[in-house]
Design a protein that fits this description.
Elements (H helix, E strand, L loop, with lengths): L7 H13 L3 H6 L36 H24 L6 H6 L5 H7 L7 H21 L14 H11 L2 H14 L4 E8 L5 E8 L10 E7 L6 H4 L3 H8 L5 H11 L4
Antiparallel strand pairs: 1-2, 1-3
Helix pairs in contact: 3-6
Length: about 260
C-alpha cells in the first residue's frame, strides 16, 4: 500500500476540500493520528465529554494536592468543556469551513486547520476554549500516582527521538523545565511532534490556552503553568510546582501518544 505524506499546508487543504464535499466519512478519518489522547469523538449527544479523572483526586499528593485537583478538573476543565460545546452548538457564529467540520472530525483536526491568528471574536472564543479542552485532556491523561509503573524515564522509540533531538533525557528535561519557568503570565510548555520535520521533537511554550495544533505540530505532553494549576499548594513558587510535576508523569501514556502521532495513516 502506498502512503502519501502531507505537510500541514497540504493536509489543511485536503481537509478543507473534503469539508466542501459530502464525504464526511473521509473527513473524519483523514487526520486521525492528530488525536493522541481519548476522547477522539463526540458522545451520543454530539458533545465533547469531560473525561473522568483517571486516578483519585488525592493520589498525586505530595506533589499536587487534593483541592487543586478538584478545582482544576471539576471546575476549570469542565468549564472549557462546556464552553467548547457552546461554541460548536452555535455554528452560525463559526467560519463556514469549521461549521462543516464540527461533529464530523476530532477537535484536534478542527484546531489543526484554524488559521494561527483568529480573525473574529467568535473564532477566538472557540480557539480559547477548544484549546483549553485539548490541553487539559492531555495534562490529566499524562499523570499518575507516585510509584505507578509508567513513572520512569521514557523508553523505546520515544527515548530514541529524545536522544536524537536533545542529546539525552536530562537535557530534554532541562529544556522543558526552562521553557515552563520562562512563560510570562499564564500558559503552557509542550513536547510536540513536528510532522513537517520528519516527526522530530520540539519543546515549545504557548500563552494562555493556545493549542500547538494551530502551528501544525502535535502535542504529546503538556505542562500547565496557569496559577490555577499550582497556587493553592505552592503559592507564587511556580518553579517548585514544575519540579514536582516531573514526579507524577506517566511515560507509558506519552510513549503511546508518540507512537500514534508518528504512525502514518
Amino acid at each position: 500500500m502506498t502512503t502519501i505524506a502531507f505537510g500541514r499546508t497540504g493536509m489543511r487543504a485536503v481537509i478543507l476540500a473534503l469539508a466542501v464535499c459530502s464525504g464526511f466519512a473521509a473527513v473524519a478519518t483523514a487526520p486521525a493520528k492528530l488525536c493522541v489522547y481519548e476522547p477522539c469523538a463526540t458522545n451520543k449527544d454530539g458533545k465533547w465529554p469531560l473525561p473522568p479523572l483517571p486516578y483519585p483526586y488525592d493520589s498525586l499528593v505530595p506533589h499536587i494536592d487534593n483541592k487543586t485537583m478538584h478545582f482544576h478538573h471539576d471546575i476549570h476543565f469542565a468549564g472549557y468543556t462546556n464552553k467548547t460545546n457552546k461554541a460548536l452548538s452555535e455554528r452560525g457564529n463559526l467560519p463556514p469551513y469549521l461549521e462543516k467540520l464540527a461533529g464530523n472530525m476530532s477537535l484536534e483536526g478542527m484546531m489543526y486547520v484554524v488559521e494561527s491568528e483568529p480573525d473574529s471574536a467568535n473564532l477566538t472564543y472557540f480557539v480559547n476554549n477548544g484549546g483549553g479542552y485539548l490541553n487539559h485532556k492531555m495534562y490529566f491523561a499524562t499523570m499518575a500516582p507516585p510509584g505507578s509503573p509508567g513513572q520512569r524515564e521514557p523508553t523505546g522509540a520515544l527515548l530514541d527521538a529524545i536522544d536524537a533531538q536533545f542529546g539525552n533525557f536530562t537535557a530534554f528535561k532541562d529544556e522543558m523545565t526552562s521553557q515552563a519557568k520562562s512563560v510570562f503570565g499564564s500558559g503552557w510548555a509542550f513536547l510536540v511532534v513536528d510532522p513537517e520535520n520528519s516527526n522530530g521533537l520540539l519543546v515549545t511554550s504557548r500563552p494562555n490556552q493556545n493549542s500547538p495544533y494551530m502551528d501544525g505540530v502535535i502535542p504529546i505532553l503538556g505542562l500547565d503553568v496557569w496559577e490555577h494549576a499550582y497556587y493553592l499548594e505552592y503559592g507564587p513558587n511556580r518553579g517548585d510546582y514544575i519540579d514536582n510535576w516531573w514526579q507524577v508523569l506517566n511515560w507509558t501514556m506519552v510513549e503511546k501518544a508518540y507512537a500514534t502521532a508518528t504512525t502514518s495513516s
